[in-house]
Amino acid sequence: MYDSHILAAIFPEILLSVAALILMLIAAYAGDKSIRVVNWIAVFALVLAGAHAGYPDTHSNVEIFSGLYRADAFAAFAKVLIFGAAAACLILTPRFFEREGGCRAEYPVLVLLAAIGMSIMVSAVDFVTLYVGLELNSLAAYVLASFMRRDVRSAEAGLKYFVLGGLASGILLYGMSLLYGFSGTTSFAGVAEAMSAGMSKGQIFGLVFMLAGLAFKISAVPFHMWTPDVYEGAPTPVTAFFASAPKVAALALTTRVAVVAMGPSGHSWQQIVVFLALASIVLGAVAAINQSNMKRLLAYSSINNVGFALIGLAAGTPAGVAALMSYLAIYIVMTVGSFACILQMKDEDGNAVESISSLSGLSQVRPGLAAALAIFMFSLAGIPPLFGFWAKFLVFDAAVGAHLTLLAALGIAASVIGAFYYLKIIKTMYFDAPSGELARGRSPVDFSIITACAAVILFGYLLNPLLGSASAAAAASLF
């Protein structure tokens, strides 16, 4: 018999599991004509789960299920971001699939199942729970990537994601088995206790393999090879989902593993994280310069942003983790807003347009969309006074505070390189002649999301006290 505190701690997972089962039955009974009802019920379930996760009384730093699952402020912060991003991506979905051949009613169910997996991931304090959550998320994601079965690009994206994802899962599982073999336990606390007595070679190899597997999940260099192809080939709402919610879950999981399970070996994993951060920042900035497809460009942008977020983890301090969580919150808004703008890019026949060249002269044809996209590009570039600048400032400040001044300096220098391709898009929209590829018109729902995201980016500094206290509480719960 579980008491009310335990049930309250796992309420988001229970709610989403029940919602997924009920919606699956509705989809099986009513067919694809029920897609709108199923979609909005899924959105409501995600919003309700996020509201519950963010309520202060539901996370009291307690471990349940014999130490397999931890409900704390860190997990709650990550869950709010995950559920919010998933709900926003579901809202963007129906209009896209209406033109592309119709959306099947199973789509929202898959998103809910992925969200359950991500929720388990960020609360995992044992390798068993970690792997269950990770695979639940991954299996749903493989299907989502190849959701448009008649589209060759979508099928290719799903196959690549499945093959490389399976390889990464194998690497991660091997790393976990090594740590279990040389520590005698699968719990994060037990591994940390074993490492505090001194690192054996087996534990070092296990640490390296685990970080390699997790680096694939966050698409950090050199384990990023799947990202551009999958982002380009997958349906745009799926790409928006991949670039937001799973990214938060994977980075939060990596942070918990590094700080809690591998805390005593901080010097060892810090060197790996510093390399992943710098490599991701530089490659994400340089490789995006010659891209001609907006989704591929944003894929490299996500790699670049993962590098900046990892600077906060590399600091290895509460301030660094707090900066990372704040970065993720701001990154979610910038990413969802950017993909909402891409979903607005359609020709006169309603077909999706993804090329950067099609944005030529957009400010003359659709000034509202051009202004919104410009705000997101400036913010992703870290141009003050937009909120994206504050995200980068936080991680650089945390790095300097942890005596990683050189890392911060290199990150600042590389961010200048990355600004080039963001500014290139703005130049294309405002200074080139209209291409005539994009049609006029807008979707009220998409436009409302774009407006909301742009408002947060413009006036996000008003949220600094709330975001700062929430991220600080999340970081403190890990230490």
**Class based on secondary structure composition and strand pairing:** mainly alpha
What does the overall shape look like? Answer: globular
Total strands: 2
Instruction: Give start-end ranges of low-pLDDT stretches.
Output: none
SS field, number of helical segments: 21
Order of strands side by side in the largest beta sheet? Answer: 1-2
> Percent of residues in beta strands?
under 5%
Cα end-to-end separation: 31 Å
Q: What series of H and E elements makes up the topology?
A: HHHEEHHHHHHHHHHHHHHHHHH
pLDDT average, as an integer? Answer: 85
Helix content class = over 70%
Radius of gyration: 21 Å
Main sheet, how many strands, which sense, barrel?
Answer: 2 strands, antiparallel
SSE topology sketch:
Layout: H1 4-9, H2 11-30, H3 35-54, E1 62-64, E2 69-71, H4 73-99, H5 106-123, H6 127-145, H7 152-183, H8 188-196, H9 201-217, H10 227-233, H11 236-242, H12 245-261, H13 266-287, H14 294-315, H15 318-343, H16 362-365, H17 367-381, H18 387-401, H19 405-431, H20 444-459, H21 464-476
Antiparallel strand pairs: 1-2
Helix pairs in contact: 2-3, 2-5, 3-4, 3-5, 4-5, 4-11, 4-12, 4-15, 4-21, 5-6, 5-12, 6-7, 7-8, 7-9, 7-10, 9-12, 9-13, 10-11, 10-14, 11-15, 12-14, 12-15, 13-14, 13-19, 14-15, 14-18, 14-19, 15-17, 15-18, 15-20, 15-21, 17-19, 17-20, 18-19
